[in-house]
Amino acid sequence: MLMMLSITFLFYIITGIQYWVSDYLVSELKISEKTVFITFAIVSITGPVLGVVVGGNVTTALGGYNSKSALYLALTIATLCLCSASPIAFIDNYYLFIALLWLLLFFGGSILPCLTGIMLNCVDKELKTTANSIANLSYNLFGFLPAPTIYGLIYDSGKGGNSREAMACLMFSSIISVVFAVIGGYIIVRDDILNYKAQEEELINS
Question: I need a labelling partner for 21 at 20 to 30 A (CA). Which of 15, 74, 152, 155 fits?
Answer without folding.
Answer: 74
